[in-house]
Amino acid sequence: MKMDEIHDISTDELQEFIKDCILRANNGEVEDQKTLAAMYLFGDKVEVDLKEAAYWFSKAAEQGDPVALNDLGNMYNYGMYFKADNDKAIELYRRAAQAGAITGKYNYGKSLLKSSSTEKEIKQGIELITLAADNGLANAQNAMGKMLVYGGYVNIDYDRAFHYFKAAADAGDADGLTSLGTCYVDGYGCEKNQATANYLFSMAAEKGSAQGQYNLAWSFHHGLDVEQDIDTAIQFYCQAANQKHAGAIRELGHICEFGSPQDMVRAADFYTQAAELGDTIAEFDIGTCYQFGTGVNKDIAKSAMYYSRAADKNDRSAILNLGILHQEGIDGNIDYSKAMSCFEKAAQLGHLKASCCIGFLWLDGLGVNKDIDKALEFIEAGAISGEVNTQYNLGLLYKGNSDIPQDFKKALYWLKKAALLDFAPAQVDLGIMLLKGDGTEVNEVEGFKWICVAYARNDERAEDLLNYCKNTMSSDKLEEGYNQAQLHVACAKTKNVSTSDESTTLKH
Length: 508
What we know:
Layout: H1 11-26, H2 30-42, H3 50-62, H4 66-77, H5 86-98, H6 102-115, H7 119-134, H8 138-150, H9 158-170, H10 174-186, H11 194-206, H12 210-222, H13 230-241, H14 246-258, H15 264-276, H16 280-292, H17 300-311, H18 316-328, H19 336-348, H20 352-364, H21 372-384, H22 388-399, H23 408-420, H24 424-436, H25 444-456, H26 460-472, H27 475-494
Helix pairs in contact: 1-2, 2-3, 3-4, 4-5, 5-6, 6-7, 7-8, 8-9, 9-10, 10-11, 11-12, 12-13, 13-14, 14-15, 15-16, 16-17, 16-18, 17-18, 18-19, 19-20, 20-21, 21-22, 22-23, 23-24, 24-25, 25-26, 25-27
């Protein structure tokens, strides 16, 4: 009787089958030894018994059976019954590969890539994985596909990657379906096609793939070639989250934070769960929660701890925020040297705000000798790069700072740059300068326009200024400024330039 025939037999027949199987296995029948090992390993009609599984796999392996050698290697690799022993596992995989097991070739190839440093062994590892992939092993096909997409041991080749992912997907492999879907999202080896990607993700999700469930949830969350449906997104995020998919847990947190009604307590809980699973974005998110006390009690030390975790993985935003914490003080301990180090690293990783942070340390002489020229050099570099907060800060510095000669023209230039990027604080200050004629002729219409635009973005200062303008300007100028503001807001919406989509309707 074969393994696939035992599912429908009675208890008495099963006991008879096991008895006969043990008899033949004790007489050296390899297939019966493997059958018993698999039954006890997976709990097929019997209770899981790793000791029995290890015993029978060992018996079959002693006879050189390639499958048993590989499966015994897995038990050593994952610490199942045996104490985890990487060297023993690799040796068993090597023997399995030499004996002809396709899975053995794949596992031994993976082991060589993971533990080897010589070019010869790495080449051998790639050859073994390629051989297993070309012989139809889905795990190997997925592994080859990912290496061909991301590079490292092999040159990037999207066409070959697509070929391997498609082979795995055609065999019904869930990981292959998910990876093939990702190819269609990014256009790797094919034309971009989000609809096809969604179909593949749904197939993978049905097969229980956590990544497939996550990807499908993401499509519904953001309306990618499907009608946006947050409830359906939550459904699939939850399925993936139940499998400890860190990204799915984090996205449930984002829905709680940015959804309506907002629930920051639940959001922080989801971020914590995802962070403990090693999700970098969640580590940053929960760090922010502790920094500002949103959803949790404010705790700068915990904030720094989570930022540090993400910083260790080169998350540039976490590195920048960690620098800010060092600058402001963690548990009262201010460390400008560490702050500078964080800002410099964030800048190297391309964080546009970091240059401004460095500049202000030089401007205020914090941890360094005060140097106005060097400060302006860094702050202007950040502003030139297009970072809106830096442009705004630079505009304010030129508008009036005891250490920097006042220059209204430069102030107007940088405030307008930031205002055109729809940064409401800059719009207010630009409006004030135009209304007063600082560095330019008085332009009440243009000034009122920017105040109206900032008011539409719910800037707190804009309301008082709006009332001031209504009491001091003619109705014709008010109407013209209001119409220009309407036009600006309409153009900003068309260009998707917005700092808040909460309100883009002007209030007359």
